Amino acid sequence: MNMQFAYCLILGGCFLALFALGEFLYRVVKVQAEYTRKLIHVGTGLLTLLFPVFLENHWYVLLLCSMFAVILTLSMKFKFLPSINAIDRKSHGSISYPIAVYCIFLFYAYGYTDEWTHQYEKQTAFYFIPILTLAICDPLAALAGKRFPIKFYRVGEGNKSFGGSIAFFISAALICLIIVYGGLAGIHALSSALIMSLVIALLTTLAEAVSRNGFDNLTIPATAMLVLYLFSHFTDLYHTIHR
C-alpha cells in the first residue's frame, strides 16, 4: 500500500475517533455541545498539524478535508453529531473549517517561495501559525468572552465581548511570537518577530470580531496567511536588494 495513502487512512481514523469522543462526552457524560464543539475544534486543529509531517501531496489533504466536509454537511441535514451541531445559533463553522485547512495547506505547499534559500522550516511555520491561530485562539476567545464579559460591543448584527477579543489578541500574539522568534520562520531579531506577531494578532482579532455564522474559520486563517505572505515578500525583497 502507498505509504501516503496509509497515513491518510490513519489520520482519517484519528479524526473519526475525535468525533466519537465528542459524541461520548455529549451523550454519556452530558457535556454541553458548546464545549464538545470547542474540544473537537481544538483537537481537529492539532491533528492537522501532522499534515506537513505525513502528507506531501495536497490531494490526500483534499481527500481528507472533502470527506469530513461531506460528513459534517450530512450531519447538519440529518441531525446527527449533536456534539457539534446542537447549538442555539446558526453556524457554518463546521463546514468552513475543512475548507480553511485545505487552503492553508495549499498556501504552505505552494504559496511561499524563498528565492535566496529554500527553508522547509520557514514554510512549516507559515502552516502552523494560521492553523494554531484558528484552532486555539478562536475557541479561547469564545470561552473568555463568556467567563469575562468585560464589556460588549456591537459589530453588525452581533455582540462581541472585549474580554473575548483581548484573549484572542494575547493568545494569537504569543503563538506567533513563539513560532516566529523560535526560529521556525527564519527571523532571529526580536523586534521583527514582535512586529509580525502583533500585526497578525491585531488583524486576526479584527477578522474574528467582524465575522459571523462561523465564517471566522475562513477569515482568521486567510488574514494570517495574507500577513505572512506580505512579510515574506518584503523580507525576500530586502534580502534580494542587500545581498
Structure description:
It is a single chain. With 243 residues, the chain is mainly alpha-helical. It has 10 helices and 2 strands. Strands 1-2 form a two-stranded antiparallel ribbon. Strand 1 and strand 2 form a beta hairpin.
Distinct helical segment count: 10
Q: What does the radius of gyration come to?
A: 18 Å
Tell me the series of helices and strands, N- to C-terminal.
Answer: HHHHHHHEEHHH
Lateral arrangement of strands in the main beta sheet: 1-2
Please identify the structural class as seen in this structure: mainly alpha
Layout of helices and strands, plus pairs?
Elements (H helix, E strand, L loop, with lengths): L2 H25 L5 H16 L2 H4 L3 H21 L3 H4 L7 H19 L8 H28 L4 E4 L2 E4 H23 L5 H21 L5 H27 L1
Helix pairs in contact: 1-2, 1-4, 2-7, 4-6, 6-7, 6-10, 7-8, 7-10, 8-9, 9-10
